[in-house]
Specification:
α5 crosses α6, α8 packs antiparallel against α9 and α14 runs antiparallel to α16. The chain folds into 6 domains: about 80 residues, no CATH class; about 50 residues, no CATH class; about 100 residues, no CATH class; about 230 residues, no CATH class; about 120 residues, Immunoglobulin-like; about 130 residues, Coagulation Factor XIII, Chain A, domain 1. It is of the alpha+beta class. The strands form 7 sheets. Strands 7, 10, 11, 12, 14 and 15 form a 6-stranded mixed beta sheet that branches. It has a 5-stranded mixed beta sheet with strand order 20-26-25-22-23, with no helix packed on it. The longest helix is centred in the middle third of the chain and has 19 residues. β2 and β3 form a beta hairpin. It has 20 helices and 26 strands.
């Protein structure tokens, strides 16, 4: 048996099963017989094999995992003080993490808990069970008792952190989290890694795995500090938010009776077989691999959280939900049985567990048959439940969709869908999200037009408007699956435009980031002064993070803006803020608010380049328009920054930037090029090229560019400077707006 497990040889393990079963014929009451059978079936389950024929000691409808628990219980029933079996039982339950305990597992564990000196890890498992039942005080007491009896203090510290956060004690939760890292053990490191694996990709986990044991705490502090900086948080906020997300996800989004859904090796893909809609197979393959699994977890095939839970752990509370599922009874965590709601998946379990045939992630018929046998699940097309979640991630709105599926659960919108399902007879989900993005607005308009016809068109998935929305949906899903996000939750987002520009030269101790703000007056609260003027108090928090060192620079300030009158509707308050930095590669995040953290504006720029090149370098390009509020540029003169970053068609664009590192009177060539981002935009590109000569190590350049020959659209403006064999380039996206 051990040879088969080590060499991954199924035949060796099955021969061991036969020998043990034969021995059981003459020693039927010996507890080692069912115990060894349980070990053999555990080796088969952990080896990734599925039952293909009835083996000795396994019932025809059983999975290997089911056979393990049945035989293990039989061994302990034969000899209640069978220490080898009881120790292994607890280790299996520990490896299961926070999975719902099945009735047979609970009964076995309760026998250990009732002893005067139970195993510390048995208390750990029971504490997790109590936390699942939302009995947080009892769970906390059990975790502490486990530590007293010699349980792993590092692992228990993380468990205590989660439980304390569920009790709304954020400070104690964070302290427990760091205590576990300060006293890190190999066992604790595995649990901290598992905790990270829910929110980061394989590349980040590989970096974590290479960190020496004595440096893990420092690595983790930097990990969370970087995320605090990305959200312009106060130190510690992101870790507290992570623990809060964990509590909510595990309380709301557990898969009901997950042991009933182990027949699938992938998502049921047939619900994306509409006309003109290709299958997003790669996306679903990535999704299937997302949930982490503890080493030795016999129930690794089960979904612990549904896909909404995974997204909640990664991205937190959405800005808005559309089309939530009807209110359904919660899982009965005491008995572990599903709530009394329709879920046809359960009816197929006995057939599926005994079937060797799988196709496209579902149970299907033997090769050569186009349809599954009557006992198997039918193809799923129509969605009974849908939900759409709107997020604001790294400055971009992203909309993701969920629906029901046989693989994860039919009782709610449990499963991520690459597109929003379209049913010609029930277009409500599409109409609900019409106001989120232009693509969905156009699709909803097309659907509404079709609904006015006497005979609706059933080929809606082929409409170009729906295809554009589907493409946007898949791009949003792909981006959201890459990693977690740190954008603060702004329930009421201001109409705003925030820009960031890297300027200056560290060699002259003048490197800084310029932030320009255009804050919609309709969003701002105003205080009327006694003389009739309007006062606007606005708080800015800027956090700059240096990639190389992990150091941060924070600006936390409240500014008062006095206007002669209230900002008129459709107009904006313009402000500028300079943050001094030193040379290096930076990430800069900013939050703007008035009193409440749930309203305001947020922006993040992942890469702000203030590196001092040894040859020549360019600052960022600052763009303006005549008549805009002026900022004092690095040449000491006012420059009219276009804070709304949009130019009327036919207007003129002001351009300002610095050229750094040239010798005095050194010649160079400057090129300014404007190209349409969309190749279908009519009109020619604009290109200006001029010879120049440096007046010193820092050259301040201003240019005015006429836009009369460029039609409305989005463009990329690129500035290139060449001096001999040296070259430097910077670019920026600009928008030319159609006349109102």
């Amino acid at each position: 048996m051990r040879r088969g497990a080590l060499l991954h040889n199924r035949d060796d393990i099955q021969q061991a099963v036969q020998r043990v079963a034969a021995e059981g014929v003459t020693n039927g009451g010996w507890p080692w017989i069912p115990y060894l059978l349980a070990r053999a079936y555990a080796a088969l389950e952990l080896g990734g094999w599925r039952p293909i024929r009835p083996e000795d000691g396994r019932r025809p409808e059983e999975s290997y995992s089911d056979a393990v628990w049945r035989n293990l219980r039989e061994a302990i029933d034969l000899e209640p003080r069978f220490e080898v079996a009881r120790t292994w039982l607890v280790s299996l339950l520990v490896a299961g993490g926070d999975r719902l305990l099945r009735e047979d597992q609970r009964m076995l564990l309760e026998q250990d808990i009732g002893q005067a000196s139970p195993y510390p890890d048995a208390l750990l498992v029971w504490a997790r069970h109590m936390r699942t039942r939302r009995q947080y005080d009892s769970a906390l007491a059990l975790f502490e008792r486990s530590a007293t009896l010699g349980g792993d203090i590092s692992r228990l510290a993380l468990e205590r952190a989660r439980t304390l956060r569920a009790l709304h004690d954020s400070a104690a939760a964070s302290a427990a989290y760091w205590f576990g890292l300060e006293h890190l053990t190999p066992t604790g490191r595995e649990l901290y890694r598992y905790d990270l694996a829910w929110i980061v990709g394989a590349d980040s986990l590989a970096v974590f795995d290479r960190v020496p044991a004595g440096e893990v705490e420092g690595w983790m502090r930097r990990f969370w500090a970087e995320r605090d900086a990305a959200a312009a948080n106060r130190p510690g906020d992101r870790l507290s938010e992570h623990l809060r997300r964990w509590v909510v996800a595990y309380a709301r989004y557990r898969v009901r009776s997950p042991w009933r859904r182990t027949m699938y090796d992938g998502i049921d893909l047939f619900f994306e077989n509409a006309d003109c809609l290709h299958l997003a197979r790669d996306l679903y393959n990535v999704l299937w691999q997302l949930p982490p699994v503890h080493a030795g977890d016999l129930r690794g095939r089960e979904w612990l959280l549904d896909h909404r839970g995974i997204f909640y752990l990664r991205h937190g509370e959405p800005l808005q939900r559309f089309g939530p599922s009807p209110s359904l009874p919660l899982e009965d965590f005491v008995s572990g049985l599903p709530a009394d709601t329709p879920d046809a998946t359960q009816a197929w379990t006995p057939w599926a567990r005994g079937s060797p045939y799988e196709h496209l992630g579902r149970v299907a018929g033997p090769p050569g048959l186009d349809t599954p046998p009557p006992a198997g699940p039918p193809r799923q097309n129509t969605a009974r439940f849908t939900e759409s979640w709107l997020y604001f991630i790294d400055g971009e709105l992203q909309l993701v969709h969920f629906r029901d599926s046989y693989a994860v659960g039919m009782y709610a919108a449990t499963t991520l869908a690459s597109v929003l399902p379209y049913e010609w007879h029930s277009p409500g989900p599409w109409l609900a999200v019409a106001g989120t993005m232009p693509e969905y607005r156009a699709a909803a308009a097309r659907i509404a037009m079709d609904m006015s016809r006497p005979v609706p068109d059933r080929m809606g998935s082929c409409w170009k408007e729906l295809q554009a929305a589907d493409a946007r949906s898949r791009a949003d899903v792909a981006a959201a699956l890459r990693s977690d996000s740190d954008s603060p939750l702004l329930v009421h987002r201001w109409q705003s435009v925030i820009q960031m520009f890297a300027l200056g030269d560290d060699r002259n101790e003048k490197a800084f980031v310029l932030l320009s703000f255009a804050l919609g007056g309709d969003s701002l609260a105003m205080e009327a002064l006694s003389d009739g003027r309007a006062l606007y108090k606005i708080h800015f928090r800027v956090v700059a993070w240096e990639h190389a060192s992990g150091r941060t620079v924070t600006v936390d300030t409240t500014r008062q803006f006095v206007r002669e009158s209230v900002i008129p509707p459709g107009s904006a308050l313009v402000a500028f803020l300079e943050v001094p930095l030193w040379k290096g590669e930076w990430q800069v995040a900013v939050r703007v608010m008035q009193g409440s953290d749930s309203a305001g504006a947020y922006a993040l720029r992942r890469s702000v380049d203030l590196t001092a090149e040894p040859d020549i370098a360019l600052s960022d390009i600052v763009l303006g328009i005549a008549g805009s509020p002026a900022w004092r540029a690095t040449d000491g003169l006012p420059f009219p920054v276009n804070a709304i970053a949009s130019w009327p068609a036919g207007s003129e664009m002001e351009v300002f930037f610095d050229v750094l590192g040239l010798a005095e009177r050194e010649p160079f060539r400057m090129t300014i090029q404007i190209q349409a981002l969309d190749s279908r935009t009519p009109g020619q590109e604009l290109k200006i090229q001029t010879p120049e000569r440096a007046l010193g190590p820092v050259v301040h350049l201003r240019r005015t560019i006429g836009l009369a020959n460029l039609p409305p659209g989005d463009y990329r403006l690129t500035v290139t400077v060449e001096a001999g064999s040296h070259r430097a380039t910077r670019s920026q996206v600009v928008r030319i707006a159609a006349p109102q």
